[in-house]
Amino acid sequence: QVQLVESGGGLVQPGGSLRLSCAASGFTLDYYAIGWFRQAPGKERELVSAISRSGGRSYYADSVKGRFTISRDNAKNIVYLQMNSLKPEDTAAYFCAGDGSYSSVVGGTGDYWGQGTQVTVSS
To answer: d(Cα 52, Cα 32) in Å, to the nearest integer?
Structure first.
């Protein structure tokens, strides 16, 4: 079965950190660019960060630049999103998506999507 599975979400205080993982099963992740998206209640889904197949290119939304870092370990078939200095406005369901085209991921589309992991930033 081909799927992406996110993990690592949870409840954290403002200023705290979380590391999200996007694991692939049923296919080799290094053929795919990966994007992390988030969607808060009542808001549209937005691209948070993306990484190319090789890891040589990356994208960050302005709202997370300097706080979030995307990385990938193709040997482990996992992409990570390290989130530091979290703010209440980072609260959302976070999804990872994979596509053979980096530009497609940056454009907001993906061939495969995970089910999401909830991140809640609150004191």
So the answer is: 7
